[in-house]
Structure formats: structure tokens, C-alpha cells
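Lab channel / #folding
Pinned by the channel admin:
"Please post every new chain as: sequence first, then the C-alpha cells as a reply. Keep commentary short and put observations after the output so the thread stays searchable."

First post following the new format, from NK:
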Amino acid sequence: MRTIKLMMMMMIMMMIIIIMIIIIIIIIIIIIIIIIEKPDKLDTHTPNPAYEQEDATVLWNQAVHADREVTANRPDMIIKNKTKKARILIAVAIPADRNVTQKEAGKKLKYESLCMEIRKMWNRKCMIIPVIIGSTGIATIATMKAIPGKHSIDTLQNTAVLGTSQIMRKVLQCETEI
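Reply from TO:
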């Protein structure tokens, strides 16, 4: 009799342990689903394609249609200054630190034909501003001087470093899951 009671008690304890393990597994799965499906603010933010004030219009990720075929016709930002009758093409990149100067020269070269078409077609001044910040925050003197108005290079560098760290976190999380 006593052995039957002990066996029943052991079976009940085993069932309780199995139920607790199943509950823990379900909780872990729910947490993983919440983490995976929770979008980051940077991933989901899409700016308006156009922002307009009385003297300027800012276009974001808009193609420029020209008379002649231009392969690079979609800079990251276009600022149309109505009072000065000028266009500013802004190209942004965050390369590895050793490629900052090459990327800056490459962006200027890439959008030079588009800038020439804007000058010819609409008789407007055109300027290319490559905003190139290295992945650890390195910026060239040309980048710092090229950005007009009041700005803080610290803010640009901080944003670049935060973006790099976010990418690294995601990559390292993927490697640990494999």
C-alpha cells in the first residue's frame, strides 16, 4: 500500500514538473515573439516625401526627371531654395572609417551629372553636399564645412555611432540564435 502511495505521489510530482516546464516554454516563446515583432523606431520611421516652407522645399528620396538619362537621379535629399533659385543635393552615407574620403569623392562624382542637368534644364544653381560620417563617428573637414547653417557635428557623429551599435547588436543576436 505504501509503495503505491509513493508511486502515485511521484507521478503527481512528475506531472506538476512537466506542466511547469511547459508553462516556462510557453512564456519563453511569447517573449521571443514580442521581441522579434517589436519594430525599432529607426526601422519604421519614414519621413514625408516633401516638406515645404515659403522659401524652401525639402524633398526626401525623390527622383529627378531630366531630359537626358541620368543613372543617379535619386539623392537622399533635395533642398529647393526658392529665393536663391538653387538646388542642394544631399547624399548621406555611413561607411567604414577607412572608406570615408573615398565615399565622399564617390558621392560627388555620382551626382555630378544630375547637378549638370539641373543647371541646364532649369537654369538653377546646384550644389552637392555629401554628408559622410564613418561608422565610429569619423568625419572629414570637407563634410563639416559643407553642411550649411547651424549644426553640431557631435550630433551627426553620435547618430552614426548609435546606428552602428544597433546594427552590431542585431548581428550578434542573430549569431547567438544560430
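NK: The chain has one domain: 50-177.
TO: also worth noting, Helices lie at 2-37, 41-44, 100-122, 141-146, 153-177.
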